[in-house]
C-alpha cells in the first residue's frame, strides 16, 4: 500500500509514534523515526523494522526547534530523495488546573505540540510542493474537540492542531497534498499509564466500546490516511476513540 513512499514520523521512539512507524513500514514505506530523548528506543524500533524486512532510519531532533526541524527536513529530503508522508505525532502533557498552571507548563506544551507540528509542516510543505504530492497526518486528541479540566494547555494545543490541519488543507489541496488529523481517545501508552487507577476507571466508563484504545488502532488509521485509498479526504479530523466523542 505504501511501497516506494518515504515517511517521517515525529516522536517515534515509543508509544503511538513507534507503532505508526512500524505499521507504515509493514505497508512498504521507508520510515524515518524521529526522537528527542528516546534515542535507544528509536534505534531499537528501527532495527526491528529492518529485521522484519522493512526500511528505516532515525533522526534526533527537538520538533519545537524551528531551525533544527528545517535542517532535519532538508537533510532527509537529500538523503531519501523525497518525503511523501509526514506524521506529526510528537507530544507532551503538563497537566494542572488553570489557576495554578505555571507559565513554563503552558509554554512547553504549546511549543512541542502546536509549534512542533507547525515547524514540521512549515518545512515539509516546500518539499511536498516540489513533489506535487504528499500526505500530512497530525495527531490531535479528543480533548482538542471537547476540552478537559486540568489540560487547558494540552487541549488548546490539540485544538490548534486541528485548526492548522484545516487551514493547511485549504492552502495546498490544489497541489495534490492532503492534510488530515487523527483524534485519539484514551490509548494505552506511557502518557495514560501515569493516570491514577480511579481516573482510568472513570474514563473507561465513558467509552462505548468499553476498552482502552491500542496503539495499533491509531496506526492503522494513519496508514489509511497516508495511502492513495484516502486521496479524496483532506481537512478532516478522524476520531479513533471507541465512540467517546460521537
Ligand atoms: P508517549 O508514549 O509519551 O510518547 C510521546 C512521544 O513524543 C515520544 O516518542 C517522545 O519522544 C515524543 N516527543 C516529545 N517531545 C518531543 C520533541 N520536543 N521532539 C520530538 N519528539 C518529542 O505518548 P503517546 O501516548 O504515544 O502520544 C503520542 C501522540 O498521541 C501525542 O501527540 C499525544 O498527545 C497524542 N495522544 C495520545 C493519547 C493517549 O491516550 N495516549 C490520546 C490522544 C492523543 P522522546 O521520548 O524522544 O522525547
> CATH top level?
Alpha Beta
- Beta-strand percentage? 15-25%
Helical amount: 40-55%
**SSE string:** EHEHEHEHEHHEHHHE
How many independent structural domains? Answer: 1
Structural class: alpha/beta
CATH topology: Rossmann fold
Describe this structure in words.
There is one protein chain. The chain has 246 residues and is α/β, with parallel strands linked by helices. It has one domain: 3-Layer(aba) Sandwich (Rossmann fold). The protein contains nine helices and seven strands; from the N terminus they run βαβαβαβαβααβαααβ. It has a seven-stranded parallel sheet, with helices on both faces. Helix 1 runs parallel beside helix 2. The mean pLDDT is 97. The structure holds NADP nicotinamide-adenine-dinucleotide phosphate (NAP). The site of NADP nicotinamide-adenine-dinucleotide phosphate has 30 residues, from helix 1, strand 2, helix 4 and helix 7.
Amino acid at each position: 500500500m505504501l511501497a516506494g513512499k518515504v515517511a517521517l514520523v515525529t516522536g517515534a521512539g515509543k508509544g503511538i509514534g513507534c507503532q505508526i512507524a512500524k505499521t507504515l513500514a509493514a505497508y512498504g514505506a521507508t520510515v524515518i523515526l524521529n526522537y528527542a530523548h528516546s534515542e535507544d528506543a528509536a534505534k531499537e524500533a528501527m532495527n526491528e523494522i529492518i529485521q522484519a524486512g522493512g526500511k528505516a532510519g532515525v533522526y534526533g531532533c527537538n520538533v519545537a526547534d524551528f531551525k533544527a526541524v528545517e535542517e532535519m527536513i532538508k537533510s532527509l529530503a537529500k538523503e531519501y530523495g523525497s518525503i511523501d508522508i509526514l506524521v506529526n505525532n510528537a507530544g507532551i502533557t503538563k497537566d494542572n488546573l488553570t489557576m495554578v498552571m505555571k507559565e513554563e507548563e503552558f509554554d512547553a506544551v504549546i511549543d512541542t505540540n502546536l509549534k512542533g507540528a507547525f515547524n514540521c509542516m512549515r518545512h515539509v510543505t516546500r518539499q511536498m510542493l516540489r513533489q506535487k504530492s504528499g500526505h500530512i497526518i497530525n495527531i490531535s486528541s479528543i480533548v482538542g474537540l471537547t476540552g478537559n479540566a486540568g489540560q487547558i494547555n494540552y487541549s488548546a494545543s490539540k485544538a490548534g492542531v486541528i485548526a492548522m490541519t484545516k487551514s493547511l488543507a485549504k492552502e495546498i489541496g490544489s497541489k495534490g497534498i492532503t492534510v488530515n488529523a487523527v483524534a485519539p481517545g484514551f490509548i494505552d501508552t506511557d502518557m495514560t499509564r501515569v493516570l491514577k487507577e480511579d481516573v482510568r476507571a472513570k474514563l473507561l466508563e465513558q467509552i462505548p466500546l468499553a476498552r482502552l484504545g491500542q496503539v495499533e488502532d491509531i496506526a492503522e488509521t494513519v496508514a489509511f490516511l497516508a495511502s492513495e485509498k484516502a486521496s479524496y479526504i483532506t481537512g478532516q479530523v478522524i476520531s479513533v476513540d471507541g465512540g467517546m466523542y460521537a
